Amino acid sequence: MILSPFEWTIAKRYMLPGRGEAFIALVAGISLAAVMLGVAALVIVMSVMNGFRAELIDKIVGLNGHAVIQAYGGRLDNWQGLVDQVRRVPGVTHASPLIEQPLLTTFNGRVEPIMVRGNTAGDIAAIGAKVVAGRFADVLPGAGNVAIGSRLAENLGVRVGDAITIINPAGRSTPFGTVPRQIAYHVVAIFEIGVYDYDNTYVIMPIVDAQTLLLTGDTVGMIEVRTTDPDTAAATLAPLGRQLAGQAVITDWKVLNSSLFEALAVERVAMFTVLSIIVLVAVFNILSSLIMLVRAKTRDIAILRTMGASRRSILRIFIAIGSLIGVLGTVAGLALGFIFLFFRQNVVSLVQMVSGQDLWDPKIRFLTQLPSRSDPVEITMIVVMALGLSFLATLYPALRAASTDPVQVLRYE
After folding, report:
1. pTM of model > 0.70
2. Of 137, 191, 258, 368, whose CB has the highest number of CB atoms within 10 Å?
3. What is the per-residue pLDDT across 323-377, written as a single tens digit (0 to 9) for each?
4. Where does residue 57 rank: exposed (0-12), middle (13-18), buried (19+ CB within 10 A)?
5. Residues with Cβ within 8 Å of residue 217, at least 6 apart in sequence
6. Which tens digits make up the pLDDT trace of 6-25?
7. Mean pLDDT, the chain, integer
């Protein structure tokens, strides 16, 4: 909506506080601040929620692949031929054997539950974890070397070069019963994935060492599969699933982590709905400030009408005033939201320091840092919603102003 010079002059005059109009200006300022805070809250929360989902997908899918193939009974005997078969499926970019087994480890009298993960040499280097100390390259088959998560190393008090003992309760049978199998391994690398559960439990070793530890022979627990598109992994592997019916089951990452991502999806919708109410409240402030302005300017409007101003001009003036409050509040909210996101970790640290509370416990939050990822589509939706509601809030006061009858207003002047 483009205003004429006359309309723009009147709109600017009405937006600036005049004598006796400080309260109206205060209400308008509160309306602008409310829109700003509502938009900022939506931008911050939705970006953090998107960051949660994206980081979890990147880390979980990056570690466990897009899908896994597991045999009924938990062991794949003919895994070499099956790996070749999977690699020939269109859309599959990678397939490799994998062993995962919960066990126990001990060091200097400390005992911790762990998840032993047996990978091929290429997959160990491709996990994508941040190496805190040591080198993944030293995790060699038959060398008795392992890599452990940073939180696990902290709990055990382990450093690179120390030897930990891994205990397999399902050991060898003897005349005196089953003797747990205990093997010492040298820690040659300490890694950090960024997901608390992984950093707190994972011990990575070559797959041949895992087979020796678990006494499984030349078998594996599952086959890890990566495809060209994680979101279509189930459809890509559907033909293979029909071929393996009765022998093995294929599970994609969405099913493996369904409860987590469904909870995040529901929370995203709930948070967007709740925070949108803040913007709605701000819009009602715009409505009330414009109604007050129209009542205060009734005589001025009547004089403008007698001087030749059309109803259309009056309508456009008051729509422009309310819409400008919405635009300024939305722009300020976007700026505030992005500034907060840029310094989000500093803000969390400051609040923790002031309150004395641990607001970001990785045991609860899964991730070690507050994530953020802004979605341009969602940002656009927030802006459109804020501007749209601000525009709708101007219609009633603007129509009331445009319908002012100068004869009735000025009859006793």
Report:
1. no
2. 191
3. 888 899 899 999 999 999 888 888 877 877 787 776 666 655 556 677 788 888 8
4. middle
5. 211
6. 777 887 777 776 666 677 77
7. 81
CA–CA distances in Å: residue 86 to residues 89, 281, 313: 5, 56, 70
Domain borders along the chain are: 5-57+260-410, 73-245
Amino acid (one-letter) located at 184: A
- Number of residues that make up the chain: 413
d(C-alpha 204, C-alpha 73), whole Å: 23
Could you give phi then psi for residue 103, rounded to 5 degrees? -140, -165
Residue 166: φ, ψ to 5° = -100, 130
Tokens standing for residue 165: 């003992």
Task: Quote the longest CA-to-CA distance of the chain.
Answer: 115
Which amino acid is located at 376 in the chain?
Answer: P
Other beta carbons within 10 angstroms of residue 118's beta carbon come to 26
CA angle 107, 112, 117 (to 5 degrees): 100
pLDDT above 70 coverage of the chain, percent: 89
Taking only the tens place, the pLDDT of each residue in 33-49 is 888 988 998 899 888 88
Position 346, amino acid: N
User: 183 near 165, Cβ under 8 Å?
Assistant: yes
